[in-house]
Write a structure and sequence with these properties.
Elements: E1 3-6, E2 9-15, E3 30-34, H1 40-44, H2 48-56, H3 65-77, H4 81-96, H5 103-123, H6 127-140, H7 145-159
Antiparallel strand pairs: 1-2, 2-3
């Protein structure tokens, strides 16, 4: 696990390989969860049961974009990829109306969400859509380690025709 501290915004990397039982080419993708936010401790412990229980009583409509992102990560870990796509998309929509972070920190957060969205799309075979989302993530934050790793994996899969 790797953490990056940005004032109120802390990003923590989760390697998907240790979270999914699958041994597919997609098992090396990296996810980003936000700390001090619903579900973070369960996600960091890779406790899928606890993460699922944390989010079970909440509707994504009532979450802020940090929470919706963490729900997306939990859903990816539970292999609920269509739901994860919806949650990450909701997080991006909610971020559009938030003024909680400075512009620079918001770009960092948005890049992380786009990278997570790309992983969910890649897991259902939409590598072209995932590539577009990762390009957006890297446009927002070219230093996002997870987005760079995921972009390299997507590029390899696109070149291989997957």
């Amino acid at each position: 696990m790797k953490s990056f501290k940005h004032s109120r915004l802390t990003l923590a990397a989760i390697t998907l390989a240790s979270s999914l039982a699958t041994t597919s080419a997609f098992a090396d993708y990296h996810l980003t969860a936000f700390s001090e936010t619903l579900g973070f401790k369960a996600l960091m412990a890779e406790d899928i049961t606890a993460a699922e229980a944390t989010f079970a009583s909440r509707s994504v409509k009532n979450m802020d974009y940090f929470e919706a992102n963490n729900l997306c990560v939990a859903q990816i870990m539970m292999e609920e990829f269509d739901s994860a796509i919806a949650s990450c998309s909701s997080a991006l929509d909610k971020a559009e109306y938030s003024s909680e972070l400075s512009i620079e920190k918001e770009k960092i957060a948005l890049a992380a969400i786009y990278s997570n969205l790309a992983v969910a799309k890649a897991m259902i075979g939409d590598t072209a859509g995932a590539n577009v989302d990762l390009e957006m993530a890297l446009t927002l934050n070219k230093r996002d380690d997870n987005a760079n790793i995921n972009y390299d994996l997507i590029s390899t899969n696109l070149l291989a025709g997957n």
